[in-house]
């Protein structure tokens, strides 16, 4: 059974809320290690309130398999289509974290500004939903077709921005996806602070790769801190 994994997913929801990445909205999922065509995600609810009992299983067509008939988020296709396109991805965070938004709407690129966010690589792709559904949508990824176009935009990257909406961060594990979502928000904030001061000296592609590999060795350290803080905050 996946009891430990579901516990970890519930904690991840609380961490992402506590660290300012998720609010009343946004979600995190994890691929089922016993069936790669399915993933786990909370039923439709605020992330900070998620417990293991609130988690449902969804297939890659976005169909929910739940004995209680519960529903999950409208934007589950973000997850299903990225899992379909990226066998290397085992966890996905979709958030509306605020500092990221300016980069999706200005053409000003989100790039790694410090050694904690080397995973961003050379540049961060921006998903323009208008190209696929016209100018009157509510910007939500409501269908398999839109999920597929988002997965195409993400390509091999770790993070994609969604114009006027938010972002998606992927990882090989819950801990890596959570780390990336938190440090994407941090990097965006730092870049906004640095930009008025002058030209930014970003990490080179080589530095981005090396720092990303280095940080992947230490994902458990911040995870334990974030977990403690989130559990204390929810008491
Ligand atoms: Zn959204």
TrEMBL record:
Gene3D superfamilies: Class II aldolase/adducin N-terminal domain
GO molecular function ontology, one term from the record: aldehyde-lyase activity
Matches recorded under SUPFAM superfamilies: AraD/HMP-PK domain-like
InterPro entries: Aldolase_class_II_sugar_metab, Aldolase_II/adducin_N, Aldolase_II/adducin_N_sf
GO CC terms in record: cytosol
GO biological-process terms attached to the record: pentose catabolic process
KW Ribonucleoprotein (keyword) present: no
Organism domain of life: Bacteria
Pfam family, one: Aldolase_II
Keywords annotated in UniProt: Lyase, Metal-binding
Residue ranges of domain Class II aldolase/adducin N-terminal in the record: 7-192
Keyword Transmembrane: no
Signal sequence region: none
Protein's recorded name: HCOMODA/2-hydroxy-3-carboxy-muconic semialdehyde decarboxylase
Species in which this protein is naturally found: Pusillimonas noertemannii
């Amino acid at each position: 059974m996946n009891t430990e994994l579901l516990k970890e997913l519930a904690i991840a929801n609380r961490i992402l809320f506590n660290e300012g990445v998720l609010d009343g909205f946004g979600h995190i999922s994890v691929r089922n290690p016993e069936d790669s065509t399915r993933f786990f995600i909370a039923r439709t609810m605020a992330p900070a309130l998620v417990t293991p009992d609130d988690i449902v299983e969804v297939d890659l067509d976005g169909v929910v398999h739940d004995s209680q008939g519960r529903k999950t988020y409208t934007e589950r296709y973000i997850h299903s289509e990225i899992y379909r396109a990226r066998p290397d991805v085992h966890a996905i965070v979709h958030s509306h974290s605020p500092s990221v938004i300016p980069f999706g709407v200005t053409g000003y690129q989100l790039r790694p500004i410090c050694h904690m966010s080397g995973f961003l690589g050379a540049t961060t792709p921006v998903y323009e939903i208008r190209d696929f559904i016209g100018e009157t949508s509510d910007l939500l990824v409501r269908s398999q077709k839109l999920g597929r176009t988002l997965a195409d935009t993400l390509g091999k990257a770790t993070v994609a921005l969604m114009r006027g909406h938010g972002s998606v961060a992927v990882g090989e594990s819950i801990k890596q996806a959570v780390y990336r979502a938190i440090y994407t928000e941090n990097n965006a904030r730092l870049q906004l602070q640095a930009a008025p001061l002058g030209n930014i000296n970003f990490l080179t592609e080589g530095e981005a790769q090396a720092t990303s590999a280095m940080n992947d060795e230490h994902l458990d350290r911040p995870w334990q801190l974030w977990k403690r803080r989130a559990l204390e905050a929810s008491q």
